[in-house]
Write a structure and sequence with these properties.
Elements (H helix, E strand, L loop, with lengths): L1 H15 L1 H6 L2 E6 L2 E7 L13 H17 L3 E12 L8 E11 L3 E9 L5 E15 L3
Antiparallel strand pairs: 1-2, 2-4, 3-6, 4-5, 5-6
Length: 139
C-alpha cells in the first residue's frame, strides 16, 4: 500500500511541478522514503564554462528530496539543503538521482541524494532536511 500511496502523491505533485517537467525529470521508482529520478542535460542547461550549471544538479536533487519526503502521504517542505559537486556534468549526460531517507520524525525528516552520470560516476551529493506539516495529501 505504501508504494501505491507514494506513486499517487508524486503523480499529484508532478501535475503542477512545471519546473521538474521542464527539466525533463522522469520518475523511475518511488516508495516510502525513497525515489529514483533521471534526466538528460540539454544545451540550455549549460553555463559559461560549457558544463551544466550547478543549479541543474541541485534542482534534480531537490525534486528527489521533495518526492521522497512527501511519499508517506504527509505534506513536507524543505527547510535546509546542501550540495557538494564532485564532477563536472556535460551536455547530453544522463543523470540518475537516488534519494534515501535517513531520519523520519513526526515533524522533521532527513534525506541524502546521490547523483550519478551515465558512467555510474558520482557527480554530486545532496543532503536535505524537511518539515513535515501534518497535512495529509488528498490523492
Amino acid at each position: 500500500m505504501s508504494q501505491k500511496l507514494a506513486s499517487a502523491v508524486v503523480q499529484k505533485m508532478m501535475e503542477k511541478d512545471y519546473f521538474s517537467r521542464w527539466l525533463g525529470i522522469k520518475v523511475l521508482n518511488i516508495e516510502a522514503g525513497k525515489c529514483r529520478l533521471e534526466m538528460q542535460i540539454r544545451r540550455e542547461m549549460l553555463n559559461g564554462f560549457g558544463i551544466a550549471h550547478g543549479g541543474i544538479a541541485y534542482a534534480l536533487a531537490d525534486s528527489a528530496l521533495a518526492f521522497a519526503a512527501n511519499s508517506h502521504g504527509i505534506q513536507a517542505v524543505s527547510i535546509e539543503t546542501q550540495i557538494s559537486h564532485l564532477k563536472a556534468v556535460a551536455e547530453n549526460d544522463q543523470l540518475l538521482a537516488i534519494a534515501q531517507e535517513t531520519h523520519l520524525g513526526k515533524t522533521l525528516a532527513r534525506y541524502d541524494v546521490h547523483i550519478f552520470n551515465q558512467k555510474q560516476e558520482k557527480v554530486a551529493i545532496f543532503k536535505g532536511t524537511v518539515y513535515r506539516t501534518g497535512k495529509v495529501w488528498e490523492v
